[in-house]
Amino acid sequence: MTGQTGLATVAAPAASQLAVNVLSAQSLLSAFGVLGVGVVLFAETGLLVGFFLPGDSLLFTAGLLCTGTGSGGLRPSLAPLLVVAAAGALAGSQCGYLIGRKAGGALLARSRSARLHQGARRAEELLERYGHAKAIVLARFVPVVRTVLNPMAGALRVPIRTFTVWQAAGGLVWSLGLVLAGYALGSSVPKVDRYLLPMVGLIVALSLAPLAAELYRSRRVASGQKGVEG
């Protein structure tokens, strides 16, 4: 009986880690620390299977938790979080590009996910409409598109130097910016965790703002050109 109790005690922590919710920053950080954030960002930006992962809200919430506003006394260190977040985001994108360059569109063709194929179409449109540099940076802020654009860029033979420079620029702004935004808000607003869900929704909406603004601007330019031709 004592042996069974001992086994149950040992199995409990293992079970709690296996049951970690990768969509929850608090659950992820409790189970794996800041390293878990880097792994999730790598999967979201580098592997097609990670397209469903919410990088925006994860980064923002992790930054907020660094201020100690979360429940359970969870308070990760800001500096390691920034390093791991940037490393996961940059390494993931580069990995996705190299996979696309080697495998072409074969991996995407095998997927049956309608959402993934829609993201691929949007990624290709971005590359065609805005050019490589602007599309690579904008894609960082659009869920699913930031997953699919990297292998698409590789398959379409975007020059590796161009891709690396602009994915690094966009990746640093995206990863560090969202972590620091969460940290700044948590430091300035007491008990801000009460409003976490509405704030996460706002972050997701704001992440789409750069693309929406660019689409609006391009449509105005296109309509202006049509007016001149008319």
Can you tell me about this structure?
78% of the residues lie in helices and 0% in strands. It contains eleven helices and no strands. The longest helix has 29 residues, at 160-188. The termini are far apart.
Largest sheet: none
The rough form would be described as globular
Which band does the percent of strand residues land in?
A: under 5%
Low-confidence stretches: 1-18
Order of helices and strands: HHHHHHHHHHH
Mean pLDDT: 78
Count the DSSP helices.
11
* Structural class label: mainly alpha
Radius of gyration: 20 Å
Termini Cα gap: 88 Å
Percent range of helical residues: over 70%
What is the secondary structure topology, with strand pairs?
Layout: H1 2-18, H2 25-32, H3 34-46, H4 55-65, H5 78-103, H6 106-110, H7 114-139, H8 145-155, H9 160-188, H10 196-207, H11 209-229
Helix pairs in contact: 2-3, 3-4, 3-5, 4-9, 4-10, 5-8, 5-9, 7-8, 7-9
Quick overview:
This protein has 230 residues and is an all-alpha fold.
Keywords:
single chain, 230 residues, mainly alpha, globular, disordered N terminus
